[in-house]
Design brief:
Elements lengths: L1 E2 L10 H10 L19 H5 L11 H17 L2 E4 L7 E6 L13 H14 L6 E6 L3 E8 L2 H8 L11 H12 L6 E6 L14 E4 L7 E11 L2 E10 L5 E9 L2 E10 L4 E9 L5 E7 L12 E4 L7 E6 L4 H8 L4 E6 L1 H9 L6 E5 L10 E5 L6 E2 L2 E7 L4 E3 L19 E6 L3 E7 L2 E9 L2 E6 L13 H13 L9 E2 L14 E5 L5 E5 L13 E10 L7 E11 L3 H4 L28 E3 L1 H20 L3
Parallel strand pairs: 3-4, 3-6, 6-7, 15-16, 15-17, 17-18, 18-25, 26-30
Antiparallel strand pairs: 1-2, 2-31, 4-5, 8-9, 9-12, 10-11, 10-13, 13-14, 19-20, 20-22, 21-23, 23-24, 24-25, 27-28, 27-29, 29-30
Length: 622
């Protein structure tokens, strides 16, 4: 037998204390009486003057000693290991969102920790390794030999808000098990996992959890309608009984009303809030009238950030350039229109609705509104500090260090047939040069962005290389910066951030105030949100138009926790047996051999029985 909390054995000091009180002689005050005939039975006690008396066996004394002893043992957490040899044990501890459920007090995860501690108390010479996992596994206890070390390592462990994926944890456990002789592999979980078909032979499973009662906010979506926003909230009852409650809506952090819902078992409904302000951030919160109908709180809130979905319009003025037209049309934030030089003259004279104009082998002395990209400008062109001269044959291409438009552009094997000489005045930044002459330059001044490429891509091998679409995207993004939008995500899933062309620093601010720096270095590392809520993506760079100033672009994005695998709380076993209960073992529900069995609850019940027995004896006057 081993003890989970041996320090609680100090409670056994109550046994000698009880005996001490029985040894104390009761002190009575003296009173004169006319006769002691009726006091003959206690005459000896009245005649004694010593403070102590001889201990006499009494039935009440033995009951009290038994109750105190049982209580001390129960507090120490004794465990009894069933017959089995000492083995090295690897425990896979489910730390996913569903383990926050409170259908077993205080939570499923707390119950799972007790199961692990019980195994640690019965090591008997073996070693224990614990792998906690949600979407990713991590070793939290590495070959511990004593229960105290295991308890210390598990003390600050909490379940996450992410979904669980047991496959990587099984793979890690398999790698660790190959170093051990006859290892024992145990999974402690509520079963809300996608189990692989080829489970390891001899895997023991201990399930925690009893109830399937859970109501979730399965989704919060926004759409534009008539200049306003419409919010749709999806509510799903995953439990086996009917439930009802309310959903409260918040717009930009302020209450915007609530709606009641009532669902049968495994039912779903959708609630609508029309006429919300455009562009507002929306949050929803679910409340169940009966707490016993909703044991999981992490999926009771949802957030949504409106996405503009707007695409900038670009006009390509060309006599024909398939490569350029194709590269521009592939850009996700751009709607590309094509026009000949003759058609452009008519468009420029009317209302001009394009944010970007690309002149391919063409130029006009009057710049159109918005950004302009000039490709292969004709000799003699003069525009805002730019003069185009005669052609020359470029050789080695040299890119400027740190140029945002040349990021991920490999020009090492690019060959150009010819290019035009460019004479640049102040305000221009040269990104690419050949033989000391600028080939690619850009300028941002007075709210206008202008770029010039001094060669014709069709008279080179550039369009045949991967560098060409990347260069086109970088330049188009610099000329017309896209709206910074991050798609809605889920806790634990990777989010990839596309940096803006000039971005020098990228950070993500979490709902709890913590900050994660993604850049530098480039490229940005994938980001895994740890908690649900509203995040902010912030990109900063030095203002090229105002030295010393910093440009900051900030955008909110939502991360939610709902996952149907976690929301379905009914304990499940591998293979779909659906077996429930606090303890079950193996793929076929067998009890794990040699598993430590906690005895605290049994001793607690025995203590209660002895106390009730003592009360019965005293109440009868015995």
């Amino acid at each position: 037998m081993a003890f989970l909390h041996p320090e609680a054995l100090w409670l056994a000091l109550t046994l000698p204390a009880i005996v001490f009180f029985y040894l104390l002689r009761p002190r009575r005050r003296e009173r004169p009486v006319p006769s002691i005939l009726l006091w003959q039975q206690v005459a000896q006690e009245l005649e004694a003057n010593r403070p102590w008396q001889r201990l006499r066996p009494q039935f009440i004394l033995w009951l009290q000693l038994l109750a105190a002893g049982l209580c001390a043992l129960a507090a120490a957490g004794p465990t009894l290991r069933l017959a089995g040899p000492a083995r090295n044990t690897i425990v896979l501890l489910d730390a996913s969102a569903s383990m926050q459920a409170t259908d077993v007090a205080p939570s499923r995860f707390a119950r799972a920790l007790r199961e692990v501690e019980a195994m640690a108390a019965g090591l008997r010479g073996g070693r224990l390794t614990v792998i906690a996992f949600d979407r990713q596994p991590r070793v939290v206890v590495n070959e511990a030999r004593d229960a105290a070390g295991v308890r210390r390592a598990l003390a600050g462990l909490k379940p996450s808000s992410a979904a669980g994926d047991v496959a990587p944890a099984l793979s890690l456990a398999g790698a660790l098990a190959r170093r051990l002789t006859h290892p024992r592999l145990v999974l402690v979980s509520d079963g809300g996992l996608d189990f692989p078909a080829n489970l390891p032979a001899g895997l023991e499973v201990i399930t925690v959890g009893r109830s399937a009662a859970n109501v979730s906010l399965a989704g919060l979506s926004l759409r534009s309608l008539g200049g306003n926003q419409v919010a749709q909230v999806s509510v799903v009852n995953h439990g086996d009984a009917a439930a009802k409650g309310r959903v409260n809506l918040y717009v930009n952090g302020r209450a915007a009303g609530s709606k009641a819902w009532q669902l049968p078992a495994h039912g779903a409904t959708h609630l609508l809030w029309p006429d919300l302000p455009p562009g507002a951030t929306v949050a929803a919160e679910l409340e169940a009238d009966d707490p016993a109908a909703d044991y999981l709180a992490v999926d009771n809130r949802a957030w949504a950030v409106p996405q503009s979905g707007r695409r900038a319009r670009a006009l390509l003025v060309t006599t024909g350039n398939v490569y350029l037209e194709r590269a521009l049309s592939l850009l996700p934030g751009l709607e590309v229109y094509r026009a000949t030089p003759e058609e452009y003259a008519r468009l420029a004279a009317a209302s001009y609705p394009y944010e970007l104009t690309v002149w391919d082998g063409y130029a006009d002395k009057n710049l159109p509104p918005g950004a302009v990209w000039i490709i292969n400008p004709p000799p003699g062109l003069r525009l805002e500090g730019l003069e185009v001269g005669p052609a020359f044959r470029p050789h080695a291409l040299v890119g400027a260090d740190g140029s945002p438009v040349l990021r991920y552009v490999d020009l090492a094997e690019v060959h150009l047939e010819k290019a035009h000489r460019l004479t640049l005045a102040g305000g221009w930044t040269v990104d690419l040069a050949a033989d000391g002459r600028p080939l690619l330059a850009r300028r941002a001044e007075k709210g206008r962005r202008l770029a010039v490429l001094a060669c014709d891509p069709q008279h080179s091998d550039l369009p045949l290389r991967p560098a060409f679409p990347v260069l086109v995207q970088n330049l188009a993004t610099w000329l017309v910066p896209p709206a910074l939008e991050v798609p809605q995500g889920r806790v634990g899933e990777e989010l990839l951030v596309s940096p803006l062309p000039l971005a020098e620093k990228i950070i993500i601010e979490a709902p709890d105030g913590s900050v994660t720096e993604l850049v530098p270095p480039f490229p940005p590392a994938p980001f895994r949100p740890a908690v649900p809520g509203l995040y902010h993506l912030v990109q900063r760079w030095a203002n090229p138009e105002r030295p010393g100033d910093t440009v900051e672009v900030r955008q909110a994005f939502a991360v939610n926790a709902y996952d149907v695998r976690e929301a379905v709380l009914a304990p499940r076993m591998p293979g779909g047996s659906g077996e429930e209960g606090p303890v079950a073992g193996g793929p076929h529900g067998r009890r794990p051999p040699g598993r430590p069995v906690p005895l605290s609850s049994v001793l607690g019940l025995a203590t209660l029985a002895v106390v009730l027995w003592e009360w019965k004896v005293v109440s009868r006057g015995r």
